[in-house]
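Researcher: Before we compare anything, I want clean individual predictions. No alignment, no superposition, just each chain on its own. First chain goes here; please echo the sequence and then give the structure tokens.
Model: Echoing the first chain and its structure:
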Amino acid sequence: MLARLAPPRVVNIADLRRLARGRLPRVVFDYIDGGAEDEVTMRENERVYDDVVLRPRGAVRPVDVDLTTTVLGTPLALPFALAPVGSTRLFWPHGEELAAKAAHAASTAYSLSTLSGTSVDDVRAASSGPLWYQLYLMGGHDVALKSIARARAAGASALMVTTDTAVAGMRERDLRNGIKALLGPMSIGKIRHGVQFLMKPAWFLGFLMDGGLMKFPNVVLEDGPMGYVDVGPALENAAVTWDDFRWIREVWGPGPIVAKGVHTGEDALRAIDAGADAVVVSNHGGRQLDGVAGTLRMLPEVVAAVDGRAEVLLDGGIRRGSDVVKALCLGAKAVLIGRAYAYGVGAGGEAGVTRAIEILRAEIVRTMKLLGCASTSELGPEFVDVPDSWLKGDVARLRS
């Protein structure tokens, strides 16, 4: 497996994506790879990094680069952590556990989704590394309260509350591929779409041996864990308001709480007023509202609005180490990578996640050496040029 993921076959995240596409059934790959509606925002999340131009310092002798940072009170060896990605068990048996182990080995944090195929207790048993827990209010307050308590008991050091899922986005690839039929109870639709599984026998065998049909063990209802087909309706009854956020803040108690899904300066201020210690500039990877700006485009606005009162993180579209560097220059404390490591899970399980982390780490170090910068803590707006349209109003002081 390690040889399969080594150069020259795998030299960047795009290569991991290609391998994942070849190994996974179409319905599973498209779940990782797809976005909402016309996927405009999903594409823009990646493209917008091209608008930011690096400004290197010449005649600087290369030195060891310091990538360490502290995020949400957690010391990290890297300026990125693994974002919450739902249903990772679909991509590889025990996918969540393996991703957490790879993150721990790299001395960075792993974020577990409420809608994972593995319980927070099993993830903690698999890895003693830094663990953050992402929360949906699935099943109502009573169910969420128990979920929060389990996360706290398992040693999750931060709670990440997703705020951008008033309803589930229309992910048209999933609809066409019949994902609900495939992952729900036996039906004619399951038989019709099931040929996708049979065309990938190695994946299918692993999926069956890992328990088959998806359940969400972190959402425990009266009759047991929530099933995949129940997620859409449940999300519509689980929309988080800022009043809910205040309640969650009180329930979570000591320790950082994060508002994930912030996309404007105004919402960043609302999050802080509701008790957030950090915000994640995120549009859910372009999987919710299509037609909004790429997250990097919104980062300066949020950083200026927050004005140091909370940590600012970012996710969306990160495929290169230089993308991470650009986000740090524009004020992000760190970034969360999602698809980049999900492709790694799909391509090679734990080894694939490890390779994704190695690729990004090497690219960050190389970019910083070529910039003439020895530490991520020294990165700032002087190392980048951004379009004038980004520098409106009080955002302009980022360049002062």
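Researcher: Okay. Second chain, same rules.
Model: Second chain and its structure:
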Amino acid sequence: MWHNLYNKLAIGLTLILLLVGLLYVGVILSINKNNSLSTDQALNRELAKHLVAERNLVAENRINQTALKKAFMYYMNINPSIEIYLLDLQGKILSYSAEPGKVKLKQISLAPVHTFFAAKTFPILGDDPRAYGKQKVFSVTPVPNKQKPEGYLYVILRGEQFDAIEEIAKNKRLLTLSVWLIGVSLGIGLLVGLLGVYFITRRLKRLSDAAQEFHQTNFSQSLLLPFSGNNGDEIDRLTQHFNQMSKKIVQQLSTLKKQDEARCEMVANISHDLRTPL
């Protein structure tokens, strides 16, 4: 199989298309994820502010710690996909709705928080207190108010439970999407590619068969393969040179044969003359 040029090109083309298909799937998934994060954060931009107002977290311009704890318990049950954190003005985590022991960071960077307040485009990723070096989309608001902030209510929009469920769904979608995209891409691309490879290798095979036939005739008949002239491609020029070469070989062999016949005739005449007395 590896001795056939068409098979080599076909296998190479298949591998290339497979890699392109995998790359295409990766790009599509990356774009979809980024769009999903942008949409999620844009829709929930005011979530932290609404939580403060809805759950009465501020009383007499101070944080109501009792209401805050109740809010933590409430949203852990009603919407486990979000995680709520109370930060001080330096980003230190004061309290949170997550289970004890699962929060890894004691302080987060406030640079994304300040960017969030002036942002017009999303997503903006902030530190995930549950994981070192990991960032997620969030909503945030100063508490008790913007004029005299004592800290920030920081809400991770896609918490640990959301990630776990999304991973399961994503794996199923990824498998289905990958199979369809790679299958369709390979099917169409491979069909077009194999047709192109066939038309190229067909001419080379014709040249190879003609060279083998030339050898079988003991180089007695020159090749007359058609070609497109000097304006053709490399295969046409190769065919032209092969025709010229075969014609030259036949001429040279014919000349050598005539010279050999003349030599034999001369030797025979000389031998005859030497045997004949003067």
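Researcher: What stands out in the second chain?
Model: The chain has a mean pLDDT of 77. Additionally, The helical segments are 5-43, 47-54, 65-78, 111-118, 160-216, 234-275.
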